[in-house]
Specification:
The protein has 349 residues and is mainly α. 69% of the residues lie in helices and 1% in strands. Strands 1-2 form a two-stranded antiparallel sheet.
């Protein structure tokens, strides 16, 4: 008699399991805030509408939460051990989105208003500050002998995140071409700090709270950072060619803002006819109309920017796999992490 086999969990199932584990602790943490920033935090997470009415719209996938839980499990501990780390990184991620949306002037996220657009700039800054403080408090107060090391891990990631955001903002003042143009290696560094740092921190935090040895913490952190760079690369693809119904932002949104993303940088570095025509379109300060935006997107693709960005994402996903395999880890958690890896680029178009 052949016994039925159980299919391994899919990426959405893994994410849902981790979200369900983390949600009560995350909600309890946010309830400790003043009611006003607590409402804005819940709004940002997709839990409520303006005024506090429960929402039924889209919520985040919880990739960072999952990495913290899986990092603990990979180190041989129960997933619950990583929950405090998952809450902390989710609070920091939400804080960073609130402030990033203000800095970038983004009015939509997940197909609805951003917090600053719904509540005002000052309130959104206040809510972000509250989440920042709450994240550190959550880790410091956790009943875990490794909480001090966890706070240090998060603090290092925060410094990296600020560095990456500073680099991204400074890119805006640099020219499209010439010696001062942003190069691919500079963009990789920015993405590693701005996006990779927190994903790496999430995976590492779970291991830290589980009392894992330094090589394990380092390997999981490195895997998460590579996932972050891949994640950012696919976001860059979606920022030009993504379906507004999926991204919640207008088509060609990054081109409309003349944002220096990896596809554009790679296209301009190709230095062919399409690259030169693209530079001519981007250089004037005046906004581009819809025809110019469509032409610019076509030129980026013609110059190889889109294919180079997808290849960049896959390269970092492979580096993430290599990092996971570089140390002994609990097999079920490794399988779960590796199941999430391709899921991060499945959003591409």
């Amino acid at each position: 008699m052949t016994l039925p086999t159980t299919a391994p969990p899919t990426a959405p199932q893994i994410l849902a399991r981790c979200r369900e584990l983390v949600r009560p602790a995350l909600a309890a943490a946010i309830e400790r805030l003043h009611p006003w920033p607590a409402e804005m935090a819940a709004f940002s997470l997709g839990w409520c509408e303006v005024g506090g009415k429960p929402a039924s719209g889209a919520q985040g996938k919880g990739v960072r939460q999952a990495l913290a839980v899986l990092g603990a499990e990979a180190a041989g501990a129960p997933g619950e051990t990583g929950v405090a780390g998952a809450v902390a990184v989710e609070l920091i991620h939400t804080f960073s989105l609130l402030h990033d949306d203000i800095m970038d002037g983004d009015e939509l996220r997940r197909q609805r208003k951003t917090v600053w657009k719904a509540y005002g700039t000052g309130p959104a800054v206040l809510a972000g500050d509250a989440l920042f403080a709450l994240a550190l408090e959550t880790l410091a107060d956790t009943a875990n002998v490794h909480s001090g090391a966890a706070v240090r891990q998060l603090s290092g990631a925060l410094n990296d995140l600020v560095r990456g955001q500073a680099e991204d903002l400074l890119f805006e003042s640099r020219p499209w071409t010439g010696p001062q143009a942003v190069r691919r290696h500079e963009y990789r560094s920015m993405a590693d700090h701005k996006t990779g740092a927190l994903l790496g921190c999430a995976a590492a935090l779970g291991a830290v709270l589980a009392g894992a040895p330094s090589p394990t913490v380092t390997a999981l952190g490195r895997a998460g950072r590579h996932l972050g760079v891949a994640f950012q690369a696919i976001d860059d693809v979606l920022g030009i060619w993504g379906d507004p119904a999926v991204t919640g932002k207008p088509v060609h949104s990054d081109l409309r803002r003349k944002k220096k993303t990896f596809p554009v940088i790679a296209a301009l570095e190709a230095d062919g006819p399409a690259s030169r025509h693209l530079a001519e379109l981007l250089t004037p300060r005046a906004p581009m109309d819809d025809d110019a935006l469509r032409r610019a997107a076509a030129l980026v693709e013609e110059a190889g920017g889109r294919s180079a960005t997808v290849a960049e994402a896959h390269r970092h996903l492979e580096l993430a796999r290599t990092a996971v395999h570089s140390v002994p880890l609990a097999p079920p958690a490794v399988d779960a992490i590796l199941t999430l890896v391709p899921f991060l680029v499945a959003r591409s178009v």
